[in-house]
Amino acid sequence: xxATPPGTQPLLHPLHGLxxxxxxxxxxxxxFADITxxxxxxxxxxxxxxxxxxxxxxxxxxxxxWSVVDAIRLSRTAVAKRGLLLFVLLAVMWIVGLINAxxxxxxxxxxxxxxxxxLSIVSAVLALGAGxxxxxxxxxx
Length: 141
Hints:
mainly alpha
């Protein structure tokens, strides 16, 4: 087990990191499934994207709830802004992902058009951004 270098510590609890790892992996995977569908016209890729999106929403919802607790818990510390930013990114990611899930629940042929692709891109970028904020190290105050 490696010790945390002096003066730095992660923003989030290891269990929160485990919850956050799912949307970080699943939202970009759904994006790749959408891109593959647009290149192949195989409807099964939209089903893959819908299930990946649903998994990201399920576990991502718990990550959002945990970030609410962290934002409240860290409100009087030096990392309050980063905790709040993480919460906002996760909340917007989850809402965009939910809209994307509704988009993907439409007819298979029309579920991934411009709207579905843009929603997948936005949710993937927000998930990766939240991961960047959460897994980066901060200076302790």
